[in-house]
Automatic annotation (TrEMBL):
Membrane topology: Multi-pass membrane protein
Similarity comment: family membership: Belongs to the binding-protein-dependent transport system permease family. LivHM subfamily.
Origin species: Symplocastrum torsivum CPER-KK1
GO terms under cellular component: plasma membrane
Protein name per its UniProtKB record: Urea ABC transporter permease subunit UrtB
Keywords: Amino-acid transport, Cell membrane, Membrane, Transmembrane, Transmembrane helix, Transport
Listed transmembrane segments: 12-36, 68-88, 100-117, 123-143, 155-175, 214-234, 265-284, 320-341, 347-369
Alphabetical GO biological process terms: amino acid transport
InterPro entries named in the record: ABC_transp_permease, ABC_UrtB_bac, BCAA_transport_permease
Gene behind this protein: urtB
Length: 386
């Protein structure tokens, strides 16, 4: 029983570590801009699929290279998710600041688009997107060099948006008919795909009656590295200082010359990149599918709320507690632990499934927030007092 409890605690901590990586980015974005990004889970999903693509590429290079693919996958997952997050902030969220309901609906729509994109993506779609981005964003970049950009920007967008979309669709249609690209099947499809861990991440470290899986130890080590990197970035770098200043008082930071729009874009890209790293970690725990992010996004939001918005220590504590409790209940470990006490054993057996464990954890979180609505470490400062 003790071995089962220790195994459950370790597995729960590793899941909490994944939640913490994702929650770090969400806590920064939510704390700085007050944006509830429902597409955060899909950014994790993109990181997981990036890992799958990198894995397939390194398989063709041979065994020595394949053993190191996970490090390249982490970097690319961060960059891909950060680029998508930056495009999301520049193209959608920037125009919805201060409008939480519209932001919520917009990011929810983006999450559905990304899910369907992964299911359907092929060469025709990729070529069409590249052509659209080159035309539309290229036109905006050219126009931005003019002195009267504020006066003509809306007209340029109104003209170039349908024009770029029409040309992209025409190019995609031409290629599909000429080179039969439309006949090619989607790259991923709706089914789940599996990521094979390198040999040195398989197996486990013997510890008494059970093993500590190397993959989960790697995830915990990766989480510690990410937390340390984010702490050093926020506390020791110039841009970290700007982010903390804008978080505390946006209007005063703007008056002091801090480029708040660039800070917003950088913060959103950083938070999205961390979601991509979390997706890479998720791919080591199981198969990856278009709905992978939906399994984690709600728990990630709960970590941010319970820990306290914008609080790094609170996010760490909340992620470990939520991940561990969720796993102990859902795996039936608590039911076995309370086996001598029949009423408690039956109670926890009823919740010993993944879905029911989430129900119980959410009920506990609601009860906790009734006592501490600001989370474990509530925000303090003039912006909160106001």
């Amino acid at each position: 029983m003790l071995a089962g409890l220790l195994d459950g605690l370790f597995s729960g901590i590793s899941i909490g570590a994944v939640l913490l990586i994702a929650a770090l980015g969400l806590a920064i974005v939510f704390g700085l801009m007050g944006v509830i990004n429902l597409a955060h889970g899909e950014l994790m999903m993109l990181g997981a699929y990036t890992t799958f693509v990198v894995q397939n590429g390194f398989k063709k290079l041979g065994e020595p290279w394949f053993e190191a693919y996970i490090f390249f996958a982490l970097i690319l997952a961060f960059l891909v998710a950060a680029a998508v997050g930056l495009a999301l902030e520049r193209g959608v969220i920037r125009y919805l600041y201060g409008r939480p309901l519209e932001t919520l609906l917009a990011t929810w729509g983006v999450s559905l688009i990304l899910q369907q994109f992964v299911r359907s993506v092929n060469w025709v779609i990729v070529v069409g997107l590249v052509v659209f981005c080159l035309l539309f964003f290229g036109a905006l970049w050219i126009v931005s060099r003019r002195s009267d950009i504020d006066r003509i920007r809306n007209w340029v967008v109104a003209v170039m948006l349908p024009l770029s979309a029409g040309i992209a669709i025409a190019v995609g249609s031409f290629l599909s008919k000429t080179y039969k690209l439309a006949a090619t099947k989607p790259w991923f499809g709706a089914q789940n795909v599996d990521v094979t861990a390198p040999k040195w991440l398989r197996g486990g470290l013997p510890l008494g009656a059970f093993q500590l899986p190397y993959a989960r130890l790697f995830i915990i080590g990766l989480t510690i590295l990410c937390v340390a990197a984010i702490y050093l970035f926020l506390q020791r770098s110039a841009w970290g200082l700007r982010i903390r200043a804008v978080t505390q008082n946006r209007s005063m930071s703007s008056c002091l010359g801090i480029p708040t729009q660039k800070v917003d874009a950088l913060t959103f890209a950083l938070g999205s990149g961390l979601a991509g790293v979390a997706g890479c970690a998720i791919s080591l725990l199981g198969s990856v599918g278009p709905n992978t992010g939906q399994n984690y996004v709600v728990d990630t939001f709960m970590v941010v709320v319970v820990g306290g918005v914008g609080k790094l220590v609170g996010s760490i504590v909340a992620a470990l507690v939520i991940g561990t409790v969720n796993y102990l209940i859902g795996s039936g470990t608590l039911a076995l632990l309370f086996l001598p006490v029949k009423p408690l054993a039956e109670f926890f057996t009823f919740f010993a499934t993944t879905s029911m464990a989430k129900v119980m954890v959410f009920a506990l979180i609601i009860a906790f927030l009734q006592v501490r609505p600001g989370g474990i470490f509530p925000q303090k400062g003039r912006s909160v007092d106001a």
